[in-house]
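Loading example: each entry is read as two labelled lines plus one structure line.
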Amino acid sequence: MKDFIIPDRDMGTPMSKSTTMVTLNIDGISVTVPSGTSVRRAAAEAGISVPKLCASDNLEAFGSCRLCVVQIDGMRGTPASCTTPVSEGMKVHTQTDEIAQIRKGVMELYISDHPLDCLTCAANGDCELQDMAGAVGLREVRYDAPKNHFARRSAVGPNPEWRPKDQSNPYFTFDPSKCIVCNRCVRACEEVQGTFALTIEGRGFDSRVSPGMGSDSFLSSDCVSCGACVQACPTATLIENTVIEIGTPERIVKTTCAYCGVGCSFDAHMRGEQIVRMVPSKDGKANHGHSCVKGRFAWGYTSHRDRILSPMIREKITDPWQEVSWDEALDFAATRLRKAQADHGKDLIGVITSSRCTNEETYLVQKLARAVFGNNNTDTCARVCHSPTGYGLGKAFGTSAGTHDFDSIDDTDLMLIIGCNPTDGHPVVGSRMRAQLRKGAGLIVLDPRRTDILDTAHMGESWHLPLRPGTNVAVVTSMAHVIVTEGLYDEAFIREMCDWDEFQIYMEFAADPRHAPEEVEKLSQVPAHLIREAARAYAAAPRASIFYGLGVTEHSQGSTTVMAIANLAMMTGNIGKPGTGVNPLRGQNNVQGSCDMGSFPHEYPGYRHVSDKATREMYERVWGVPLSEEPGLRIPNMFDGALHGSFRGLYCQGEDIVQSDPDTKHVTSALTAMDIVIVQDLFLNETANYAHVLLPGSSFLEKDGTFTNAERRINMVRRCMTPKNGFEDWEITQMLANRMGGNWNYQHPSEIMDEIALTTPSFAGVNYDLLDREGSVQWPCNEDAPLGTPVMHIDGFVRGKGKFLHTEYVATDERAGSRFPLLLTTGRILSQYNVGAQTRRTENVVFHPEDILEIHPSDAEVRGVREGDWVRISSRSGDTSLRAHITERVSPGVVYTTFHHPTTQANVVTTDNSDWATNCPEFKVTAVQVSPSNGPSEWQEEYSAHSELSRRILPAAAE
Amino acid sequence: MATDKLIRMATQMADFFRNQPDHPAPEAVAEHINQFWSYQMRRDFIAQIRAGAQADPIVSAAADFITLPQSAE
């Protein structure tokens, strides 16, 4: 196990990006720094530590604590070094008798209103106030203040200035008695997170940190529980409850969050094998020291009592589970898989790889299908989220990944956000976007719902195009129509990077009046002037970027929308330079990686088609077995096949397809029809209700490996503790493969990465030593780019010339009619993640205990639905019940819900419609009816009865 | 496999490729199917079209360009 202690010194103020250098002299040392740097930071660069309390290098200088005062030749008085910029030839003195006296006086005042319970304080050993008292040599406090904030009672009775702790948040405690009003928490909430939940109420001695209105607690306020304030607090005023319970950590393991596709780096602060707290890494290149509530706090599921630690098997899915040894479970699984092949054919079994597992684990699972099963029946949950991205961007640009890194947000002048909700789904990216919006960047949001990013404080111009679900292609193509007909395209870029003649033909297509905003308004319900304004703003911005999510891909025309987006970027020259690009925000932590690792049935790792002879022969050489040249089955094809007897066995690692895939009844009937279903997971998830073998999985804290985030960044996942189930997931796959004749002999995930690098050109330069050294790299990482590639397509597209595809709008079959007059669209919420298997097993349930149906007041009124009522939502696929929330965030005719809770099973309602190119399900459009209801539907009751029955466990027989 | 579903999927492809200027749509649909469908799906699809299933003319014409491994023919 590795223990990484990275010097993580707080430099006091943010880094200046200026290229003009300034030289000054601090305490006799000459130091050269970029213009705009503060004296405090320049001193830190020179290795001189100037005391501070209110300053932090992730926050703008504030100048309130007066501890960092210095003397500067030729300047009057003692300026605060954090708010004083450097100038050429400046002579600074950080330690003089006068300054020492001032600092001691300041500390004396602070301490006069601070309790002296250091020995029993939760921040003991990790308190900046304590450190500063030491640094300035404070030895006595002469003031006996008549009023203070910290004593609960005085000799004469209760202290009116004292406030009790706020313990409303499940993860941290706010103790006002220890607050020094340095404002760091308030500034972190504004500058880092962008929520503005905290404020300082009162003035002077009455100044107090307050979440929201006076009557609010942290829980009832706008606080999103990201923990930036907790991280910023220099005292024990805001502190993690786990630190209060456990004490200070003794070592740090650097790892990567296992939630969304942002891929935040974390320092796991450990005591032994116990996590004390998770702190986002300052040197994390995706998150720069920030995180959301999930990554920082919601890791308790890894030690939840529901975790399955012993393998289990059963003959029939109606039998109770039988706990058995690993040998017995793996033998059972291997024998059944081989039997299914012997009885029905070698192509009738397959695997589903996990976008939550590491690259190395995913690579092994697809290898299991190809090299051991002897077919290409491997798919991954990217099928149901970003497969259209792979296809669409592949056709337009030549490669299927996001074009830019997240840092590029800092350079953008306008963001076009389509079908994604970054402040909920990708919170750290959402915060970075908000920071750029506060600096004046423009914002265009195409979404049926009014998402929170539109409510960013202090932002510049913004447009919301509330389109009807299913009309993305029409609206985006209409924006292209405006750009083409108004001559707003970038001719020089198109001539250089694309095919000008091809663009002429495309222009003819886009300029057709059927794509005009006035026509598209009729079907999308977006006012024509909004489409025009948005198109003009996007084309006019010097550097415009596009971010999109599943609201683009999960449609019958998902791939077409991706192409339409690529067209927009190409025709305006918004590719290949900072601040521009086309950036799909990936759902799960390793969606990008699972696609890169060859999880799809038609392609090997590195996106090479299985029919490509050279690649196939190379893998045959490396793996030592003959391989199939035939594309395998995709997830929906596996289900369809199972219902017709042409698919009999499945090994499913770390996915809960029963809850996450559309048309639940179809999925469960398909699973019921299979001879053998093997689930490898932390919990008895919904899919396990239909499984014959349960192989207990390991959590991200218990394994080594890598995740690849939405910006193609390969981040290290490092083992913090021994797997509770006994094995890392890659070991389990290897044991299963070897029982089926795989003859694999990997000793460590680094050896798997070496095989990936050996066989995949875009990963050729990747190895664990490089990742340890660099922290992370973005693929392509090879001879041409030994440290990876932050921005792609700089000097030309991967496919050569960028391709303009014609994106004709075709209405989905799923249309609102008289039986099902509303359109349901689904999404997710900040505090819950995907199927909720993880987050529902944490305190995050206080933020979102159940799925709620959002419905517009007018739709609610005609149905007699009141706020909080139980309603039944039904489609041609099925029905379920949940509670209604009446809101104008959704347009009339549109309803919205999340799919985090198995008791709701929102996917009972969604249909088997799918994207034309990739079979990515059309989650985002389902014609539904909503009606008042008394409670759970018949399906919900049946399902919950089945769950209970199928989750019975018999302990292993006594020996 | 449920062939009405296969034809529905192929029709969706036809809706895309009929609007592309550079390739004849039936060939493009067939190429897409050859690349992404398993041979069982391709076999069932061809059989269904040859049995006279109602389909968009592009979809029907695509069947002639779909390849099968020798073992499956």
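Chain B has a mean pLDDT of 90.
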